[in-house]
Amino acid sequence: MNIIERPRRLRQSAALRDLVRETSLHINDIVLPVFVTDGVNVDQEVPTFPLVRTVSIDNLARLLDHRVRRGLRAVLLFGKVRAANKTESGDAALDPDGCVPRAVRQLRELYPNLTVFTDVALDPYTTHGHDGIVHNGDVDNDLSVDILSRMALVHAEAGAHMVAPSDMMDGRVGALRSTLDTAGFHNVGIMSYTAKYASALYGPFRDVLESTPSFGDKKTYQMDPANIREAERECRLDLDEGADIILVKPATWYLDVVARLSEISDRPVAAYHVSGEAAMILSAAHAGHINRHRAVEEVTLAIKRAGASIIISYFVDDIFDILAT
Ligand code: PBG
After folding, report:
1. Of the candidates 60, 168, 240, 267, which lies 20 to 30 Å from 81 by C-alpha distance?
2. Average pLDDT over every residue of 57-85
3. Is position 132 within any domain?
4. What is the CATH number of the domain that holds 175?
5. What angle do CA 248, 197, 311 make, to 5 degrees?
């Protein structure tokens, strides 16, 4: 046979395959979502999402010591407040002694080399579960941006390295940037949820935070899954407003968006492999349809190959194991 090109030549051994590998996983690229709550000695699992434990501040070390020892470099903090402490306007989000600011202070003290991101949105703190202030039956953009800016400032004052607005209000990146700069926090970065879609894949996360919207849905602020041009527009706006990292969420059904934004952004692109995506892998593995480690390796690699240099993942333990073999 006269075959000129033989791509199989480069697949002959593991060493050769590794040599020509175009993308690889690295623990430096992974950010672990961490859920903190008030109270003491809380370490709670939610049956619908066993990858996550909600802990009180005193249990952060138990949750993270071994992971930091294995190389974890970054966490993204979410606060969980009791139903009794939720209000219409999410006041607990602005409490400098709330669970997130306290967790930030604790993490900065415990792990000097860990990068601490905080989620900025009101949904864990509001009675209605929406990301901002509800006015006349819809989330009011400008009222919400004002509160979210104050929330970001509370996190910066506690020592967060980066704030991550996940609310999808218009103009919030610029507003957060100017609030942070005015207060002297020039070096606190913004990882913006630039293209966050109104997705069916957030269920397990909402179970953890008990934040399922009590009415309506999030389609007046999160994006329509049908759109990519709109993601380009959000990206242009976020870059103009000063975002340091551009985030796409969910990840795997939106790899075209990850790829597109990584072409047009001159700043790093992150992708959030969200709770529903993780839960599907867990369920399929549990049913014996797929191998969990192999699936996690493949999906995480795929997100990276599409162009995300940062991956928010619940599978950090699996990734440690995969990298160790
Ligand atoms: C809301 C928020 C959500 C997630 C992160 N921030 C859910 C939502 O928009 O209702 C989902 C993350 C996940 O599913 O893992 N600010």
Report:
1. 168
2. 97
3. yes
4. 3.20.20.70
5. 25
